[in-house]
Amino acid sequence: MPETKVDVELIAHLLRRAGFGATREELAACADKGYAAVVEELLAPREERRISDYLVRRFHPELSGMMGPLAPGENWLYRMATTTTPLQEKMTLFWHGIFATGYAKVIHGKALSDQTRMFRRHATGSLRTLLLELSKDPAMIIWLDNQDNHKGAINENYGRELLELFSMGVGNYTEADIKECARAFTGWTIANRRYMELRSQRDSDWPYGRISWHFEFHPEDHDDDEKTFLGETGNWNGDDIVDIICQQPATARFIARHLYSFFVADEPPVPEWPYTPPADPQAIEILTQAYFDNDYNIGAMLRTLFNSDFFQSPEARYTKVKSPVELVAGVLRLTGEFDRPRYEILERYNQASYMGQILNNPPSVEGWHQGTDWLDSGTLVERINFASQQIGDTDKPGIRAMIDRINAQLSETTSPERLVDACLEEVGALSVEEATRRELVRFSASSLSKTPNGPGHTPARQHIADVLQMVAATQEFQRS
User: Fold this and answer.
1) C-beta atoms surrounding 381 within 10 Å
2) Close Cβ partners of 426 (under 8 Å, ≥ 6 residues apart)
3) How big is the chain by its Cα radius of gyration, in Å?
4) Nearest by Cα to 335 from 23, 19, 15, 80
5) CA separation, residue 233 to residues 244, 265, 309, 368 (Å)
6) Which range is least confidently modeled, 62-66, 85-89, 313-317?
7) Where does residue 405 rank: exposed (0-12), middle (13-18), buried (19+ CB within 10 A)?
8) Where are the beta strands (DSSP E) in 17-148?
9) Residue 234 is inside which H or E element, if any?
10) Which of 45, 125, 145, 178 has the most CB atoms less than 10 A away?
11) Mean of per-residue pLDDT scores for the chain
């Protein structure tokens, strides 16, 4: 049985939240599978179809080396715009926003790109595994100074943020717990392969540079004495600390609230959580139960979330402002500009930064504040100008294909209303408020009357492009 329009709109909602949106053709293919099957495909995709790193290096070498401040983000944006496994990239972005690490302090692009790859590998797996990998990640060790965390001279930075911003939240631990946590992570540091070692293994140090950090444990620098952490006493090391953290109901609720805020509806910034209850406490409890029922598995929490009434509700749609990177990646997927790495990806990366989001360089350890915090008088203009210019560019292959499909549907008696509906369908089954639709129809009718063909004739290609531009300027297009 074919899917109904409502089903297509629900799948479009899913793909905006669990990915970066979809073209009308992609939605039609998903509708044939059904909503539940699409959820499972997102959670357990086939191997990603993508250009090899060797070809990336050939077309754009810096996107392979990724040593500077910009290339890791350019490479990642290119991958978001072209990936066949969108949830994997969306979850990588999710964790980057929580475990915020930036170039301003790390000052080495490869360490940040390595961290991104780590997030990608463990994005939907066990939280325990992810936190262990995070604790061994060189970029995070540098970012929060754990290389300066020594037996008898602890540095609390990583221990504090692990509890406050990465797993539990304020109010669920004490200052003494922070100190004990820091003691457990003493000796967890980084090392670097010497340049001559690299040269002995290959003819060139490209693409890794002379810095190739990796995790190293120094047992002589580790505090082996007894520690009491969150009420449990033992000879704890970092692995034990992560085990104890993952067992806490506070951790389950903290991760559940993050998932709800990212995929369902904006919550206030994390520092306000101790004083502000969740918007939907029942949803948080449902996700918390999924966390414990599935051995801390994030993918199981996502399956519960995507199949829930609170996610599928029509009231949940178009309520979240897309982050700049989500907006740019989604637009690039529609325009089809990047069939391979090109220099222009730097311009698109910069355009996202003008809107307020610089990949691999969040403003602080808190990451980015979401929701309407993305919008001010300057960034809103950047967002609308970017989306409308790209979606109205008839030189882009994806836009040409859209116009071809719209033209194939229309006839000489096509009304402005039908043209608007066709354009809304093409950008991903977009549904707009009635007042917005009336304005789009008014614009379409006015513009159509001025085209050389005149009213009553099949719209000219430029007229269709003009209507698509107006659709891209709507608030619904800017939201997910």
Assistant:
1) 12
2) 23, 24, 402, 405, 406, 468
3) 24
4) 23
5) 11, 39, 42, 36
6) 62-66
7) middle
8) none
9) strand 232-234
10) 178
11) 90
Question: What is the sign, positive or negative, of the torsion defined by CA atoms of 298, 299, 301, 306?
Answer: positive
Which tokens hold the place of 458? 């099949």
pTM here is 0.93
Q: What phi and psi, each to the nearest 5 degrees, are found at residue 21?
A: 90, 180
d(CA 255, CA 128): 12
Which residues is 233 bridged to in the sheet?
A: 228
Residue 2: per-residue pLDDT = 45
Least Cα distance to 316 among 325, 306, 328 occurs for 306
CA separation for the pair 72, 147 (Å, rounded):
23
Task: Convert the pLDDT of each residue in 121-160 to its tens digit.
Answer: 999 999 999 999 999 999 999 999 999 999 999 999 999 9
Residue 163 burial class via C-beta count within 10 angstroms: exposed 0-12, middle 13-18, buried 19 and up: buried
| pLDDT, tens only, 342-355 | 889 999 999 999 99
User: Is pLDDT above 90 for 297?
Assistant: yes
Task: Copy the structure tokens of residue 344.
Answer: 């222009």
Q: Indicate the range of 39-48, 215-224, 446-455 predicted with least confidence.
A: 446-455
Which residue has 């970029």 as its token pair? 139
- Location of structure tokens 């513009």: 447
DSSP-based three-state secondary structure for 122: helix
Query: Nearest-5° angle of CA 405, CA 411, CA 415?
Result: 100
**Secondary element (H or E) of residue 33:** helix 24-33
Interval 92-108: pLDDT, tens: 999 999 999 999 999 88
In angstroms, the CA 412 to CA 417 distance is: 14
By residue count, the chain amounts to 480
Helix, strand or coil, per DSSP, at residue 153: strand
Phi (first) and psi of residue 234, to 5 degrees: 175, 180
pLDDT at 210: 56
Mean pLDDT across the stretch 450-467? 68
Residue 16 to residue 323: CA distance in whole angstroms: 12
Q: How many CA atoms lie within 13 A of 196 on its CB side?
A: 0
Where are the alpha helices (H) located in 123-174, listed in sequence order?
127-135, 138-143, 157-164
Q: What angle do CA 181, 183, 186 make, to 5 degrees?
A: 115
pLDDT digits (tens, 9 = 90+) for 416-435: 899 999 999 999 999 999 99
Model confidence at 451, pLDDT cuts 50, 70, 90, reads low
Residue 228 DSSP one-character state:
E
Helix axes 127-135, 238-246, angle to 10 degrees: 150
